[in-house]
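ok trying again, last paste got cut off:
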Amino acid sequence: MTVPLLKIGAVLSTMAMVTNWMSQTLPSLVGLNGTISQAGTSERSTLFQSPDEGWQVYTSAQASDGKCLCTAVIPVQGTCSRDLRSRQLRQLMEKQVQNISQSMEVLDLRTYRDLQYVRNTESLMKGLDSKLKVAAEKNLNAKSFQELKDKMTELMPLIPVLDQYKSDTRTIVQLKEEVRNLSGSLLQIQEEMGAYDYEELQQRVLVLEARLHACMQKLGCGKLTGISNPITIRASGSRFGSWMTDTMAPSSDSRVWYMDGYYKGRRVLEYRTLNDFITGQNFVQHLLPHPWAGTGHVVFNGSLYYNKYQSNIVVKYHFRSRSVVVQRSLNTAGYNNTFPYSWGGYSDIDFMVDENGLWAVYTTNQNAGNIVVSRMDPTTLEILRSWDTGYPKRSAGESFIICGTLYVTNSHLAGAKIYFAYYTNTSSYEYTDIPFHNQYSHISMLDYNPRERVLYTWNNGHQVIYNVTLFHVIKTSGEL
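nice, full thing came through this time. structure:
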């Protein structure tokens, strides 16, 4: 007869490894205040130590009258780097400790079954022992007595096995208690270190990022006070064209769309990331059913909005379905170089997107060629409201909208500046003098991206971006 023996060496080895990790980790814990405290030192570091290490200043404000200034900063990317010890702790919680617990359950089950066998064997041995005593008293025949004696002899080797089972049972009880204590200690460390599951942590970051962007839209809007020096992303294509990202996409979507030329074009290149765009790799091609006119296209919430060539028809093309979702005539709007910007290029109708949604900039004969700004329904392309700015479109180099305000440059050539601003919220305007460095001397596309708070520009075959500075006064409580 053979009896399976318990094997707990692997469990004891894993327990030793976990205990060793705890002895190395416990001396230094991550505090709840977001700083890392090293045992025996006074050094402290934060997750983001400076704007250069993961934070980006989107807007800044200056006030000469002592008003409250507000500078908004948000993480550049919606990703998070986890502490090494936090990751090790998660691995221990999810793997080693769980494996120990599972092994303990198996051992516990086996012990329970084996103890049942032990109890049965003990009962059998006691029964045989009683029968032997009775046999001795009643003088059973030699054959019957010998049978009982043989069975007893067969069971004698089980005595040390029974003792081993009893010892293993006590060891398992101790191990179960140690695992319970270990799990409690690791959970306490996890709470102190904030070692959240990666998916949970990522979801928290996305929720926070959405709240920050919502806050930026409510509080970050302001008056344009400055434009940075140009940042050249790539030199590609002809003298005229447009490039853009989706103004409504989440931060994880960094696709870039590229449209070379200003008329009759139908080929749109979609790059997977900005780095792919810079290197000219990893792109797919969309072939539009209708050619475009001008360079005033935008990508908004997964669709391309553009002006159909030789018409005042505006088109919404959905990239995923590769089809035109809706098209509508922009009644009385000039087209085919009737009312372009100063550089020409069939730039009669210019789409824009800001914090408030989709806009179209164009002009008509009825308003004598002055710029008209119209809010549009992005689903139906219906005009929701229009404003006549009074500024002649042929005198404008280019224009863009930030927070409901149309900004117009006085030229598309070198020496251009932001010369005119029209405020749709008050239906008023003013002349401005904001420097604008036109590095390559010929701008044929200029658009604001509210998601990234930058200006996208096509400048003489160069794809360029500019950061913007907005002035905004935050009223304190009780201030009228």
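cool. Residues 19 and 433 are 68 Å apart (CA to CA). The chain has six helices and 25 strands.
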